[in-house]
Every structure is written in structure tokens, then in C-alpha cells.
Design a protein that fits this description.
It is built from 4 helices and 22 strands. By secondary structure, it is an alpha+beta fold. It is globular.
């Protein structure tokens, strides 16, 4: 796009147009919110802007004229961030009220509340294919949710040593960046369901990070007043750790990229209507779709094992590894449920004692 939007503690939103002589401010929305504005984000087509603020609301604006369109209310504490999905039909927001919310833009209503958090949620992001969201916050964990079934599909317990400040998906959807007050920037491999790399560059909290549109670079910012630009080099790292010589990550999937028949990301990006089917009362989660949308493993070509029939087929080994990873996620999810049940039991005992 050609416009930059900013939100401020002065409760205003400003839109800027870059030029060779600096930034020209064509539009200022004063008193856009009733509190400090925590985030602003354009829709992918640049026609809409969503803002989140300490007045506990999410607001939608026309861009670039800055016309106010809607207010989404429901959070009961500061809203830390909000962003559109790929077709502007959904918004995800994260709040200090320990929830993340999924909003139906056309219906101007809250479609679903993710409330399985023990601490404020500081960030929430849509997966590039529109079928999942990632959340993180002050509980130091990172989660990935299927928005059709509303189920937790990946849970990274103690992902950081301090609160998590931001998230960013790689355009391919295979990797996720996270930043934290512990000073690190971490890269998560969503295909394998594990930590891929930890970067230590900032002297103090790392506050934000974002991939470039083609995924070949990412930038990070920190409380040390510095901005760092990193080259991803994921294929180089995979070669080093896999001991392979021909490992190459697939090109990021974009609307303009050629669709390859055998590419697991060649399926169309999920529309809002398809995603919303899982939110309708009595609807059945699309299990076949879920299977296809599982984090995909990039195959590593290795020399054929000696021994013929005694060797385990590579495809079977990958499938078994994936099953083990999903069982680990299930175990952690059960642990969270048990903790919530214990907390509820304690509350009931307290209430009985009072009575």
C-alpha cells in the first residue's frame, strides 16, 4: 500500500503517505477512541482499517478517507490488538480480560470467545490460509487454534521466559515468530510442532517482529531502541540440522504464485463463509478439512536405507512422528482442562464454606 497508519496514547489515529521528502499526513482522526490506542491494522486490500484501544472497543474505519463504520463491543478490559482475515469477513482481537474474540464483520457481532487463558492475551494473528489463529500473552505460552472446530491444535507451554509481546506468521504458514520481554525472538516450526530457532540480539525486551511479504526477511524491534533486519535462511538451517544436501523450502503461497498440483498449500485460501460454518449451532467440524489443514511437513530426501524390506518407509516414519507430536498436544490440553477443573472445585468449596 501507499499509506501508513499510526495510533497513539493521545487517542488519535493518523494516516501518512510516504514521499521522497518525508511523510505527508493527509488525515488525522482525533478522539478516535476513548483511551490509548494499542494497535491499528489495514485489511489486505487496503480498504478498511481496524483499531483496538484501552476503551475496551474495536473500531472499523474506511480507508484511506478515515470514515467511521462500526464499533465492536464486548471486551471488559483493554484491547491489545485486532486484525482482519484475508477477505475482511472476520476480525480477531486480544485483550487484558484474558480472552481473544473472533468477530463477524458483516453481522457486527462476536462469533466466538476464546477464554481458556490464565493471564491477559497480548496478541492474536490469523494464519495465512484463514483457517486458524495464533494467540499469546502474559502466561508465556503460544497457542494455535482451528477456528472452524474452535479446538486447540498446538500448544507451546513456557514458550518464553517472560510475557509474549507479538506474533507473526511466515507467508507459507509453516513458521511463526514470537517476541518476548525475555529479550529473545523465537521461530516456531508449525509443521513439526516444535521450536525451530532462538535469536538473541536485543538488549532488553523484544517488542515486535514481522515477516516481509515474501518471507525472505523479518524485522524485529526492542526496548533497546533498535530495529534489526534478519534474513530467514530457513532452508540453510534445515540443511545443517538434517544433514541433507538438497533440502529446499517451498516458495511462499500467494495469489499470484503458480499453483502446483502436489503442493500441500495449493488449496484455495479458506473463505469467511467456510470458516464460519464451524461456528453455527449444531454444525459438524469439517474433519476432512482439518486433516488437510494440519501443519505440513516438508519432506527431506535421504538416501535409501540399506536392508530392503527391513527399513521403515520414510512416509510411515513421518506419519508416526506427526502422531507423537499431536499426542503431546493432546496431553498438554488435558492438563489445562484438569487445572481448570481443580480451580472450579476450589471455588465450589469456598462457596459451600461461605454458605
Amino acid at each position: 500500500g501507499t499509506t501508513i497508519a499510526s495510533g497513539s496514547r493521545d487517542r488519535s489515529i493518523r494516516m501518512w503517505t510516504p514521499s521522497i521528502v518525508g511523510l505527508y499526513e493527509p488525515k488525522a482522526l482525533k478522539s478516535a477512541h476513548g483511551g490509548c490506542i494499542r494497535s491499528v491494522s489495514f485489511s489486505r486490500d487496503g480498504t478498511l482499517l481496524v483499531s483496538a484501544a484501552d476503551d475496551k472497543t474495536v473500531k472499523i474505519w474506511g480507508a484511506p478517507e478515515g470514515k467511521f463504520l462500526h464499533t465492536l463491543s464486548g471486551h471488559i478490559n483493554w484491547v491489545r490488538c485486532a486484525e482482519f482475515n484475508h477477505d475482511n469477513g472476520l476480525i480477531v482481537s486480544a485483550s487484558d480480560d484474558k480472552t481473544a474474540r473472533l468477530w463477524d464483520v458483516r453481522g457486527q457481532r462476536c462469533a466466538f470467545i476464546y477464554d481458556d487463558f490464565k493471564a491477559p492475551v497480548r496478541c492474536a494473528k490469523f494464519h495465512p490460509d484463514g483457517a486458524a489463529i495464533a494467540t499469546a500473552g502474559e502466561d508465556r505460552t503460544v497457542q494455535v487454534w482451528d477456528i472452524r472446530s474452535q479446538k486447540l491444535v498446538q500448544h507451546y507451554h513456557a514458550a518464553h521466559g517472560d510475557r509474549v509481546n507479538s506474533l507473526s506468521f511466515h507467508p507459507s504458514g509453516d513458521f511463526l515468530l514470537s517476541t518476548s520481554d525475555d529479550g529473545t525472538v523465537k521461530v516456531w516450526d508449525l509443521r513439526e510442532g516444535q521450536l525451530f530457532y532462538t535469536l538473541n540480539g536485543h538488549d532488553g525486551p523484544s517488542t515486535c517482529a514481522e515477516f516481509s511479504p515474501d518471507g525472505s526477511f523479518f524485522a524485529s524491534g526492542g526496548a533497546d531502541h533498535s530495529v534489526m533486519v534478519w534474513k530467514t535462511n530457513f532452508d540453510v538451517v534445515l540443511k545443517k540440522h538434517a544433514g541433507a544436501t538438497d533440502v529446499k523450502l517451498p516458495e511462499p503461497f500467494t495469489a499470484e504464485a503458480p499453483i502446483l498440483k502436489d503442493d500441500p498449500r495449493a488449496a484455495p485460501v479458506m473463505s469467511t463463509e467456510r470458516a464460519m460454518e464451524g461456528l453455527k449451532a449444531g454444525s459438524t467440524p469439517p474433519l476432512k478439512e482439518n486433516k488437510n489443514k494440519e501443519p505440513v511437513k516438508t519432506p527431506v530426501k535421504k538416501p535409501a536405507a540399506a536392508g530392503g524390506d527391513g527399513a521403515i518407509p520414510e512416509a510411515l516414519a513421518q506419519t508416526l512422528g506427526h502422531i507423537v507430536g499431536q499426542l503431546d498436544v493432546l496431553t498438554k490440553s488435558i492438563g489445562l482442562i484438569e487445572e481448570r477443573l481443580s480451580a472450579n472445585e476450589d471455588r465450589v468449596k469456598d462457596l459451600v464454606g461461605i454458605a
